[in-house]
Amino acid sequence: MKTKVLSLVALFMLxxxxxxxxxxxxxxxxxGNCGMCESRIEKALNGIDGVSKADxxxxxxxxxxTFDDAKTSVDKIEVAVAKVGHDTPHHKATxxxxxxxxxxxxxxxxxxxxxxxxxxxH
Length: 122
What we know:
Layout: H1 2-21, E1 23-29, H2 35-46, E2 51-57, E3 62-68, H3 74-83, H4 95-99
Antiparallel strand pairs: 1-3, 2-3
């Protein structure tokens, strides 16, 4: 009888802790090339309050991040990644930061279209 009660209490505690953890996992496309990129991207997220796990895969170029959405957001995560030189779907690294990356870390960037109005009138 005592064992059954202890088992039930342990089960209840395990269930309660998973409810309060509030962990959300998202996959985000992040541009990069190598192991140095992986270290830089993951390290940038270690400093964000609420991020419990960050893993960037250099083959798929996907960042899998687990976080507490009461403390941070996907937007804040993408901003942190862009600040260290890596483009995401919603935030691009500045040219200055990108240009400071080691050569092996410089990935192909999408060209931004310039809307040229030269030579014609509206």
